[in-house]
Amino acid sequence: MNYLAHAYLSFGQDEVLVGNFMGDFVKGKMMNTFPEEVQNGIKLHRAIDKFTDTHPLVRAGQSYLRPQFGHYATVITDIYFDYYLSKNWEKYSRIPLEDFIQNTFTTLKHHRQLFPDRFANMFQWMVQDNWLLKYGKIKGMEQTFIGMSRRTSFDSKMEVAHLALLEKEAEFQVIFFAFFEDLETFAREKLLEIQEANAGH
Questions:
Q1: What Rg value do the Cα atoms of the chain yield, rounded?
Q2: Which own/partner pairs from 51-57 qualify as long-range (CB within 8 Å, at least 24 positions apart)?
Q3: What is the pLDDT of residues 30-88, one digit of tens each?
Q4: Residue 31 neighbours by CB under 8 Å, 6+ apart
Q5: Maximum CA extent, the chain
Q6: What is the Cα–Cα distance from 153 to 57, expressed in whole angstroms?
Q7: Are 26 and 117 in contact (CB under 8 A)?
Q8: Helix-then-strand count for the chain, H and E
């Protein structure tokens, strides 16, 4: 999943949010240097990504994209899901999206001393260009995919991924609603399981 979903699936727990955002940037023994709840957020991030990558509905969406985009189909569906989460935000949260995003950035800034260097650099751009708000508009999606395409070593074709979304917007929305319901249930239960396991040590 992408960043807006990871923020939402931190369920209002600040240190879990920090870990959930940094999950891709923490390797090996680095994990042990963080406070326990941040570690829980990192573990949750990894569990969410694994659940997403193996979910049959997500795989069905990716199978449509794979002939054109190859293994980048996985990244593309993650970003598509942030688009639908943003567009349908009121279905999931009573907090207005712009307020939620500002709260997220404020919480992350408060814990910036914990950031791995690579994440700190990326976070600066994330705030400056307000990536989380961009995801809800096709123009923002286009800009996001063009930026990602420039950063890939190979011809990813991601610069046109927004067109594939436009072409199958209704179909991907059906996938998103059904999948995200499963994901939210899984993430709530998984976080509780992780926290209870750590509390027992």
A1: 17
A2: 51/183, 51/186, 51/187, 51/190, 52/1, 52/78, 52/179, 52/183, 55/179, 55/182, 55/183, 57/175, 57/178, 57/179, 57/182
A3: 999 999 999 999 999 999 999 999 999 999 999 999 999 999 999 999 999 999 999 99
A4: 39, 42
A5: 50
A6: 29
A7: no
A8: 12, 0
Hey, which bits of the chain come out as E strands? none
User: In this predicted model, what pLDDT tens digit does every residue of 104-137 receive, in sequence order?
Assistant: 999 999 999 999 999 999 999 999 999 999 999 9
Q: Which two tokens stand for residue 199?
A: 């509390």
Predicted local confidence at residue 155, as pLDDT? 84
Which residues does 6 contact at the CB level (< 8 Å), separation at least 6? Answer: 20, 21, 23, 45, 48
Query: Residue 88: which of 187, 184, 189, 188 has the closest Cα?
Result: 184
pTM metric for this prediction: 0.94
How far is residue 132's CA from residue 40's CA, in Å, rounded to a whole number?
A: 23
